[in-house]
């Protein structure tokens, strides 16, 4: 099948997330992956928006320093319930507890994302917020879901695009943001800096 975008400048995704990778790849965007090594501990009293913006900036800067001529896109996603910041669960038991906390409730998903290019002195950081409502479910559902193995590398202990979709009653706001990369906003930024461009019928790329 045809793809929607072509890539015009060297692009690096500063994330090891297979979901972020798939979201960009599905659009026909070419990029390499460099996984940043950063300390993801929240600062004392840090709320979700400053945290995700700081994390996204930190990840992009780390990779940008080593690859100054490339354009680097990074992201950081957290789940917020009340005033609690839910990052990735450390153990299966913690994942079950997170899911039971969210059962039958609405929570928020915030993704901070950054685009950096050191040579062009560009560093842009934004964040996007979505709201997700879970159906009400019991411990048996939570344990069965954690048993799939999907919980462990995901903020809030679930992935909406996998089997975790069965837990979700509704989403308000960007769906791809809940997966981990708000596509409309990220690709808008990439297009603005001409890192990618919409493909037109008359253009053909290599290997077509």
Supply database-style keywords.
208 residues, two-stranded antiparallel ribbon, alpha+beta, globular, 9 strands, 26% strand, 7-stranded mixed β-sheet
Q: What share of residues are in beta strands?
A: 25-35%
Largest sheet: 7 strands, mixed
Distance between the termini: 11 Å
The helix/strand series, from N terminus to C terminus, equals EEHEHEEHEEHEHHE
DSSP summary: helix tally: 6
Note down, in words, how this protein is organized.
It is built from six helices and nine strands; from the N terminus they run ββαβαββαββαβααβ. With 208 residues, the chain is α+β, with helices and mostly antiparallel strands. A hairpin with a 2-residue loop joins β4 and β5. α3 (92-102) packs across α4. The longest helix is centred in the first third of the chain and has 19 residues, at 48-66. The protein is globular, with a radius of gyration of 18 Å.
Describe the secondary structure blueprint for this structure:
Layout: E1 5-7, E2 11-13, H1 18-25, E3 32-33, H2 48-66, E4 71-81, E5 84-86, H3 92-102, E6 106-117, E7 122-134, H4 139-146, E8 168-172, H5 175-179, H6 183-192, E9 196-198
Helix pairs in contact: 3-4
Briefly, what is this?
With 208 residues, this protein is α+β, with helices and mostly antiparallel strands.
